[in-house]
Specification:
about 425 residues, 6-stranded antiparallel beta sheet, two-stranded antiparallel sheet, 16 helices, about 60% helix
């Protein structure tokens, strides 16, 4: 295989010429040949999983969607090899490793501050929220007026209908190597914040469309993102739905208190599970297509019930039923409804006719909300493995649990002797 790679590399080098310290690809037909062998070389590289992971990581630093090695970076390696009369694949890999190391060393993170307008009002104080190395705050327009009235920002928005003063702003502080990566990571965490806020605003509510097309379940959505690099305006993004007339929601102090508690007093691994579940729940609320909304809610259910590889989906149903029996004392009819939801999920995933309607979607939404509440108010203090054990124990009847307790007490008493 190494000989084939050597041959591919030699073809590439033979079809290029060094002129004025640059690699110049020759005209047709050899130019076509160069591209053909270049694709083969890159395909072989991407079979190396470690290299692939490293390259994917670097793509963020160069800008999303841009390949690091389809430009001057790769040409510089070919130039050196031509000048040094080297043509083996091992030599190429060695130079490639050196280039990767240099790129990673030269790219120094800088501080980005991203501001997300949200259609929310509240008089309560929301504490600073921290996810790993990211810091999140919620600010008023008055606190940010100097920044938001930046001349460059105003010029960018001169054709937009956007009333800055009506919004609260989620401020995210992150260290990153470019604004594309900063926005990608920040928005993921902002979706979690919006999801938890939307959870408190929508929990237990069911929505039915009386007239017209089915709509998403919340208007609490992003419209713009303003990016500042080390205090200087660096550009903005906007979403598909950047309307300035969305409903403005009121967040009460009780919800704010729980928001502060959840994100600042929870173990990191539990915070990660809750964040993922809330994020998928939020996707369910904002999805316009009812099937996508249903699947997003189901994914949130899988996460909050600790579904992992190797656990069949029917186990999710068992955990849901046992939890709801404990929480709201469900009936046989309710269990039948859960089975129907599971059947709809299977049909949808496997491409069969599902006929999901708003009542089905709303019912799954309510189930997810019960499980998120259960997780937040009853399970959040436990470790992940303890929570998994609780889910298993909840599926047993009281007689079995009492016997297990007696046996456990007996074993403990033996160890004390």
């Amino acid at each position: 295989m190494a000989n084939i790679k050597d041959e591919i590399l030699k073809k590439i080098l033979d079809s290029s010429t060094v002129i004025d310290s640059k690699v110049i690809k020759l005209p047709d037909p050899r130019f076509i040949e160069y591209n053909r062998y270049l694709i083969l070389l890159l395909s072989d590289l991407m079979q190396d999983q470690n290299f692939q992971k490293r390259l994917n990581k670097l793509r963020y630093y160069f800008g999303l969607g841009k390949d690091v090695f389809l430009g001057s970076e790769l040409n510089s390696i070919f130039k050196e090899m031509k000048q040094e009369s080297k043509n083996s694949y091992d030599d190429f890999k060695e130079k490639l490793e050196s280039l990767l190391n240099k790129i990673e060393k030269d790219l120094k993170p800088v501080m980005y501050e991203l501001y997300y307008p949200i259609n929310l009002k509240t008089d309560g104080q929301i504490d600073i929220i921290k996810f790993r190395d990211i810091q999140i705050e919620i600010k008023s327009y008055e606190e940010l007026k100097v920044l938001l009235e930046d001349n460059s920002l105003k010029e960018d928005l001169k054709l937009e209908k956007f009333t800055k003063s009506k919004y609260k702003y989620i401020k995210v502080t992150i260290w990153a190597r470019n604004k594309y990566y900063a926005e990608k990571v920040s928005t993921r965490y902002v979706d979690v914040i919006l999801g938890l806020i939307a959870f408190y605003l929508n929990c237990g509510r069911e929505y039915i469309t009386i007239w017209g097309n089915i709509k998403e379940l919340t208007e609490l959505k992003l419209n713009h993102i303003f990016v500042f690099k080390e205090g200087t305006y660096s550009g903005y993004y906007y979403s598909d739905d950047k309307r300035d007339d969305k409903k403005v929601y009121d967040l009460n102090k009780a919800a704010i208190g729980k928001l502060n508690e959840l994100f600042n007093n929870v173990k990191p691994n539990i915070q990660e599970i809750l964040s993922k579940a809330i994020s998928w729940y939020y996707n369910g609320l904002t999805a316009k297509d009812i099937n996508y909304s249903f699947l997003n809610f189901w994914t949130a259910l899988e996460i909050i019930t600790l579904k992992k590889k190797g656990i069949p989906h029917i186990e999710i149903v068992k955990r849901l039923k046992s939890a709801l029996i404990t929480l709201i004392n469900i009936t046989k009819l309710d269990e039948h409804k859960i089975d129907r939801i599971y059947s709809l999920r299977n049909n949808l995933v496997h491409g069969e006719s599902s006929n999901i309607n708003e009542f089905d979607r709303n019912l799954l939404k309510v189930y997810v909300e019960h499980m998120i509440e259960f997780f937040i108010f009853r399970l959040i203090k436990y470790d992940i493995e303890e929570i998994r054990m609780i889910f298993q124990l909840m599926q047993k009847d009281n007689i079995t649990l009492e016997k297990s307790k007696d046996l456990t007490d007996f074993v403990i008493s033996l160890r004390k002797k």
